[in-house]
Amino acid sequence: MRSYRWEILICLVLTVTTLATFRQVSDYDFINFDDDEYVTENPHVKAGLTRSGIVWAFTKFHSNNWHPLTWLSHILDCHLFGLNAGMHHLSNVLIHTANSVLLFLLLRWMTGNLWASAFVAALFAVHPLRAESVAWVSERKDVLGAFFWMLTLLMYVSYTKKPGIARFAPVLLLFALGLMAKPMLVTLPFVLLLVDYWPLRRFSEKNASLFWEKMPLFALAAASSIVTVFAQKSGGLVRSLETYPLDIRIANALVSYIKYIGLTILPRGLAFHYPYPESIPLWQTVGAFLILSGVSVFVIRKRETFPFLTVGWLWYLGTLVPVIGFVQVATQALADRYTYIPSVGFCIMLAWGIPLFVKERPVFRMTMTALAGIAILGFAACTWFQLRHWQNSVTLFTHTLNVTEKNYLAHNSLGAALEKQGNISEAIRHFREALEIKPDGAQAHYNMGIALEKQGKSSEAIQHLSEALRFKPDFADAHYNLGIALKRQGNLKDAIRHFSQAVEIKSDFAEAHNNLGNALSHEGNLKAATEHLSEAVRLKSDYSEAYSNLGTALKSQGNVREAIQYYYKALQFNNDFAEAHFNLGLALGSQGNHKEAAKHFAEAIRIKPDFADAHYSLGFALNMLGKLDEATRHYEAALRLMPDFAEAHYSLAYILASQNKLDESVRHFADAVRIKPHYAEAHNNLGSALARQGKFEEAVKHFSEALRLKPDFENARQNLELALQIMGKTSGNAP
Fold first, then answer.
1. How many other CB atoms sit within 10 Å of the CB of residue 418?
2. What is the pLDDT of residue 731?
């Protein structure tokens, strides 16, 4: 019976080495590029495993992709770990570790060469180019797609040992799952043909049958390609030929093939984003073409002698085709993550090719083994240091700016990270640099607008948000934040227009539905407001602010009991929500439940001590409960926070009058009518206090003003008549 101790030992060493190299990422944060869309700001993902989340994963082109299995993996992470970034990172590490072991087992099974297989797997596992795919949570699709790539190949090898439908079905299923994790796997059927040639050596006079047996796989690949192009076009990611002409695309593709090889051999200057070049020197394009064509001709001519060179080279070239830039997606010239599967082909060339140059002497074999070990350890060390740049958004994009030039994306993303940390001035500096590089950068204009709004520069903020929409009219977030800025300026009509456009572009935009509903409520369109606020809480079931706003809209329509339920719902998800406590207190008070109302006003003040309205309302509730001294303290607190609070002056004056503190009472009533000249009740009560002081002429003036403002004010009429009688006059000759 054959012993597998070497295979087991190599698998253990691979596992330990890979985990040790990447362990540090479990202490890292999410980054602000894609991680928000994929996890931290994605309500469907954050909710964990739910029926609606699973349906969403399979039916939506979110983030310009259709990869439901990737979404399900993120959903599962959130279900198990919430938003613990370290655990999300660790999931990537574990899948990558599994991929490394599977790659070793696959090559060992196909080729029978233990040490070459181990070398390829180790190089794949710890190379610095893997840092991006593993350390970036949003690149779960990379490692998960590769996991199914390896499993599909393993099942295919099993199928080739004893072909049949029963053995081919798992191949088809695993390939379909892989495409649902990352569509880049469309090249796998071609790779199966390559491994048919070597090392499986299935090519013979019946070569045509090898193509026909893979037709179901090619059909799946074609369907996935169509869906992917549609998804990316719908999100505006596919760049036009006007933006990136065909000649520059071809030149960049040729040069990128060489750059990827260079970065594999000498991984220096690795960056999150490599800006697309404005032009490429002709010598680079010609040189790249000559190298690629020369190597291709050589390996094809030597296919019988060195089939591993042919297969490795064509694996490398072919698996890069979907991302090499002939169809340009986004703005990068190349990306480290794109080498995840293609690098295996180049590593095969090295692992099987280098021994050809080593003579069959023990000293040479020992030297080669030592050099291979040193190379792997060296790459692992480089990866360890490269991973340190991935701690958070600031470290990542600072490093990117250090190793690249004219990097719009890095300046913009670093600015966004600094703005989130509260370093607004430095953030604005980076946004300005981003806009110098790309004046039509909608995202940088948007971020600049957000930062300026935080500095209180609303007019400038509105200008930049408007510019963002000029360059990208379907920018839902820009419409939303422009709406917020306009609402703060009191321009409710335009704010509603932009909130409406935001939800029209992005129907599941819960925050926009909430703010649109709130704005419509202020405008008096309560029915429409209720519809949008209800949609906000449907989309985001833990949305405290929307529950509170929905309660207020319902209360304004007279549905106080239902409103109270929504206020309690808001507090269920956020018990430290001062405004919800305040609104609940108002609703309870309107039902006469002043005792419970007072508790919630007190909670609002505990959470937000400078909440003047809550102090005033607590004073009112305490007044209704007969606790006049406590009520007085809260009215005074409200006035310290907001000296021009007319209602607080009025209510405090009323208590002071009841305590015969007439001078203070008159002063506060007078302040109330000074601040709010049309305050009929304050004029009436000021008149009463003045009359009690014997100042009937002044009292009559205020009673008369109260009646002028409110002709049906019976109490003011009675007070006026009584004052005139006391003065010995009649109402007919009143001043």
1. 23
2. 45
Task: Give CA–CA dist 575/588, Å, rounded.
Answer: 17
- pLDDT tens digits for 105-121? 999 999 999 999 999 99
**Half-sphere exposure (Cβ direction) of 1: Cα atoms closer than 13 Å:** 2
CATH class of 646-735: mainly alpha
Domains of the chain by residue range? 5-384, 646-735
* Amino acid at residue number 356: L
The two three-digit tokens of residue 283, written as one number: 């010598």
Burial of residue 346, with CB atoms counted within 10 A of its CB: 0-12 exposed, 13-18 middle, 19 or more buried: buried
**pLDDT per position as a tens digit, 626-675:** 999 999 999 999 999 999 999 999 999 999 999 999 999 999 999 999 99
Return d(Cα 633, Cα 622) in angstroms, integer: 10
Give the residue among 188, 315, 316, 179 at the shortest CA–CA distance from 257. Answer: 316
Q: Is 308 exposed, middle or buried (0-12, 13-18, 19+ CB in 10 A)?
A: buried
Lookup result for tokens 């309690």: 568
Token representation of residue 315 = 């694996």
pLDDT given at position 235: 66
| Predicted TM-score (pTM) above 0.85 | yes
Question: What SS3 class is residue 281?
Answer: coil
pLDDT the model gives residue 330: 83
Rounded (5°) CA angle 59-73-30: 110
- The answer to whether residues 264 and 346 touch, using CB atoms and an 8 Å cutoff, is yes
Sign of CA dihedral 224, 227, 231, 233: positive
Name the helix (H) or strand (E) containing 341: none
Residue 406: the pLDDT is 96
Matching residue, tokens 């036009």: 240
C-alpha 392/C-alpha 394 separation (Å) is 6
